[in-house]
Each structure stands twice: as C-alpha cells, then as structure tokens.
Specification:
Elements (H helix, E strand, L loop, with lengths): L1 E7 L2 E7 L15 E7 L1 H4 L10 H10 L4 E3 L12 E4 L4 E4 L10 E2 L5 H11 L6 E5 L2 H5 L7 H15 L4 E5 L8 H23 L4 E4 L8 H4 L3
C-alpha cells in the first residue's frame, strides 16, 4: 500500500494506492527506486511553501518504509535532499554520502501533455523505474485539442516504456480547479479518460496504475486555483 500526501496551500490530502502481488514491495530491498516526478506546475512544486510539492512527503515515506530512493530529473526545485549525481549523455555517477544535494525533478510549470512528452525525450536516458505523471490542467485551461488528450497521453506512456520497458507508471487524475467551472469540469473529464487509458494498458500487461485526485469533503471550486 502506498499513500501519497499532497500538500497544497497549507492543506494536506492523502490518496491510497493498493499494489497487488507486491508490485513495489518485492523490489524494496534489492533495487533502488529511481523515481521521476513528471508533469507541470504541481510536479514542479509551484505554490508549495518549500518548492518540494508532494515529492519530499513521498520520498520520506518510502525511505521510512525501507526503500532505497533516488529521485531523477533535469529540472530541480525545492529544499529536499537527494543523492548527488553528475550527468552525462550516457551515464550516471552517484555519491550517496555527500551532504549537498540536488532536488531532482521533471516538472515544468505551464506545460501541456505534448510539452512534457518532449521534455521526457531529453531526460529518458535517466531510465526511471517509477514514473509519477500529473499533467493536463494546462491543456484544459487553454482548450488544447481536448478530444485527443488521451492519445497524447498514450504517446507519452509509450515513450516512457520505450526507454524503460519495465517502468511502473503512476498516472494521476487532475487536481480540481477553481479558476473556472469549465476548467474544473474538464479536469474531471480528463481524469476519466486517463482512468480508462490505464485500464486499457493494464489489460495489455503494462505496469501502470491510476491515482484519483478525489479528496474528502471535496468542493472543487473552493479547494484550489489551478
């Protein structure tokens, strides 16, 4: 079981994932989790008080549970510590004992699904084995060909698996919005499309789970402004 704690504007919400057959647990002590947080402003940590967003909460919990965790990405943000690394175009070098740290992340504020896909083309050589995706709110905001957003997301998923065939992808729904009722309704619709996409990929044997963005006592127009 994995609980994601998402701090937003001083509030914290939890969503729980159950992983049958030890999808994460069986690798807990024999392989480092190379986690890539991939998405837009929420992933970047925008509006979180320390710039870490949900990433530090997640990493701390996994470390507490005994996992070796390495966050990977090319757009660092926040105050959290991680292993220091030097990147080249073909390899990674780790110094796990160094106290200085970068805050590895692949969140890009304002980006659409296709933009995030293009960024992953540049960072996929990091070969994450867990990828956390939250992106699509900006597509809703800009009314960007929403009929085909699931296709664009599938293209991103395929790109990830082409670089890391055994990667576990956690694809989230979209956080509710109070920017407008239209964007909020779009977020719900896109979330449903993503959930269906996850089901289709799981039926095809892919390692993927859906993370719903549904909170207790949720009043979407009073909760967030995204």
């Amino acid at each position: 079981m994995l609980v994601l704690s998402i701090p937003i504007d001083g509030l914290e919400y939890n969503t729980t994932l159950d992983f049958p057959n030890g999808l994460l647990e069986k690798r807990a002590f024999d392989r480092t989790l190379r986690i890539m947080p991939l998405g837009a402003s929420i992933t970047f940590g925008l509006r979180s008080f320390d710039g870490n967003g949900y990433r530090k909460y997640l990493r701390d919990q996994l470390r507490y549970d005994g996992f070796q965790v390495d966050m990977v990405g090319l757009n660092p943000n926040g105050t959290m510590k991680d292993n220091v690394r030097v990147y080249s175009s073909t390899s990674l070098y780790y110094d796990s004992d160094c106290l200085t740290a970068v805050q590895d992340n692949e969140g890009w504020s304002g980006y659409h699904v296709v933009d995030v896909h293009n960024k992953f083309k540049l960072s996929g050589y990091l070969k994450p084995n867990v990828v956390l995706i939250n992106v699509g709110t900006n597509d809703c905001r800009d009314n960007d060909d929403l009929t085909n957003i699931a296709t664009r997301m599938q293209n991103l998923l395929n790109e990830i698996w082409s670089k890391s065939p055994r990667a576990l992808i956690l694809l989230s729904g979209l956080v509710p919005s109070r920017l407008s009722e239209g964007i909020d309704n779009c977020a719900k619709d896109v979330g449903n499309k993503y959930a269906n996409l996850v089901t289709q990929n799981r039926n095809n044997g892919k390692r993927i789970r859906f993370v719903p963005m549904v909170f207790p006592h949720h009043n979407s127009l009073a909760l967030l402004k995204y």
